[in-house]
Amino acid sequence: MKRTTGAVAITSAAALLLSACGGESGEENADSGSTAEESAAEDDAAAEDDAAAEDDAAAEDEEAAGDEAASTEAPVRDENAELVIWADDVRAPILTEWAEQFGEEYGITTQVQVATDVRQQFKDAANVDQGPDIVVGAHDWLGEFVQNGIVEPVQMSSDTQALFTEDSLAATQFDGQIYGVPYATESLGLIRNTALAPDAPASMEELASFGNELVDAGDADQAFVTPVSNVGDAYHAYPYLSAYGGGIFGTNSDGGWDPDNVIVGSEESIQGGEKIAWMAEEGLLNVNVDSPTMESLFAEGRTPYMVAGPWAIPNVEGAEIEYAIDPIPDFEDGGETVPFLGVQMFYVASGAQNPTLAQEFVNTYVTTEEMQLALFEVGQRPPALQSALDTVSAEDEDIEAWSAAGEGASPMPNIPAMNAVWGPLGQATSDIVGGADPAERLPAAEEEIVSNIGR
Question: For the region Disordered, what residue ranges are annotated (predicted)?
Answer without folding.
Answer: 23-77
